[in-house]
Amino acid sequence: MSLGNLRDLYQQVILERYKTPRHKGTTSPVHCRQRGHNPSCGDTIEITVQLNQAGDRIEDVKFEGEGCAISMASADLMAEALQGKTISEALEMVKRFQGMMKGEGEFPKEHRKLNVMQGVAQFPVRIKCANLSWHALKAALESPNPESVEFVSNETET
Fold this sequence. Notes:
The protein is an alpha+beta fold. The chain has four helices and four strands; from the N terminus they run αβββαααβ. It has helices spanning 3-19, 69-81, 87-100, 124-142, and strands at residues 32-38, 43-51, 58-66, 147-153. Helix 3 (87-100) runs antiparallel to helix 4 (124-142). The mean pLDDT is 88. This is SUF system NifU family Fe-S cluster assembly protein. Residues 10-125 form the NIF system FeS cluster assembly NifU N-terminal domain.
């Protein structure tokens, strides 16, 4: 597949996920909640997480928010990829995604859908858009207050 065709495919997936998200809404019940804001462009998001009974594995992730196609598509792809992951696996995926946004590798075959976001790395100003949901998820999972209503900002990210 040529680079141009690959770029078109990436754009198509991002637009499709933006227009028809599969994981928009609020989990029931909500075990972790975090709001995120990107002051650079105004994107906002709220991530909710449902954990298993032991509290160590993600059963469901949903999001609500307003923002560009990149931020909303990234949130939808993230929510799908995290189903059934342990908290530590999820945090490792956050780290890997943020590295991918810096041009440091990609996801393995089982999570290759997330690699469609790689094209965003070519546009540094849009990296924060792609990282917003991941940043909020990390804060939700690491927060001592699992029902946080405060906004976290990803303004300090590069």
